[in-house]
Design brief:
The chain is an alpha/beta fold. It is built from 16 helices and eight strands.
Length: about 325
């Protein structure tokens, strides 16, 4: 049963609200646009504004997972959401009942390494030795046979990762629903594509994920709280450098060589379109996608646009 639930959780990772039908945006004058920007900044979350013509895009950098008792100022972000013309959400999974049934049927393939192999058959000797050291004290040896998709998730929990805190994505989704603001997902991934990816991906493709996850587990459980505090304090480069955040960027889905580029491409296309739409678009995007070297913010600056917000570059 635990494996079935794990499989369902994997498929639900990308799940979100379906995109709304496009509507004509509400006309806003420049003063009104500035009001939305000022209100949004009071939330204290990392965010940037980009303007082109009569279009303004507010990029809110979100991180996956916040401590349950974490304190920040979501009320300002809720108010800004209600005043925006449209909201961009992350991609979602377009899943059918048949996809879920197939996932359950193939759950062993997804959660176990192929044939009778163990982690030592797929990892370099040095990396396997580090994994052995992290796993000292496990009650049984079953971890050696688990797929790297599952093992990496366990390693990130050792680094402190939990779900439960109300993050920027949760805040904006709820506020948009209450305010009846137009919402649009930047794209979707088909459920059958996700399952095919999970079934057919070679364990070797997960080596960067495993290396980053082991490094995060070695650093200990304090990483989770440090990352959240850096996010709230607008220390963007520190969040990006946090071993836990590095691992999340290297693991499924963002680190997957097939799914990851698809998600990035959808975001880039949606943001480019938003910069042609009059009014205010508020986009809740992964902070790493925005602020990593060569990411969205670097690209916007390279295009000659004025990007206003906290510094996102690491000191040389």
């Amino acid at each position: 049963m635990r494996k079935w639930l794990t499989g369902l959780a994997l498929l639900a990772t990308l799940a979100g609200a379906a995109p709304a039908f496009a509507q004509d945006p509400v006309s806003r004058d420049e003063d009104r646009v500035e009001d939305v920007v000022v209100i949004a900044r009071r939330a204290g979350a990392p965010m940037w504004t980009v303007k082109r013509g009569d279009s303004t895009v507010i990029l809110v950098g979100s991180i996956r997972g916040l401590p349950r008792d974490f304190q920040w100022r979501p009320e300002a972000l809720e108010e800004a959401t209600g005043r925006a013309d449209r909201i961009l959400y992350p991609p979602y999974a377009r899943v059918s009942a048949g996809d879920f049934m197939r996932l359950l049927w193939r759950s062993r393939t997804i959660t176990r390494l192929p044939d009778d192999t163990t982690s030592a058959d797929h990892l370099p000797v040095g990396l396997q030795a580090r994994l052995e050291a992290v796993m000292v004290g496990e009650r049984n040896e079953d971890w050696r046979r688990r797929s790297f998709l599952i093992t990496s998730d366990d390693l990130l929990k050792r680094a402190g990762l939990v779900r439960g805190g109300r993050d920027a994505d949760d805040v904006v989704r709820g506020a948009a629903r209450r305010a009846d603001v137009e919402v649009e997902a930047v794209g979707f991934v088909r459920g059958d594509e996700i399952i095919d990816n999970l079934i057919t991906q070679s364990p070797s493709a997960y080596e960067p994920c495993m290396a980053a996850s082991i490094a995060a587990a070695e650093a200990g459980g304090g990483l989770f709280a440090e990352r959240a505090d850096d996010w709230r304090s607008l220390r963007v480069a520190e969040v990006i450098a946090n071993p836990l955040d590095v691992a999340l960027g290297q693991c499924w889905p963002w680190g997957d060589p097939t799914i990851g580029p698809q998600l990035r491409g959808q975001w880039l296309t949606a943001l480019s379109t938003a910069l042609d739409a009059p009014g205010v678009t508020l986009a809740v995007a992964p902070l790493r996608l925005l602020a990593e070297p060569g990411g969205v913010l670097d690209g916007l600056e390279a295009d000659g646009l004025d990007v206003r917000g906290p510094d996102w570059t690491a000191e040389p």
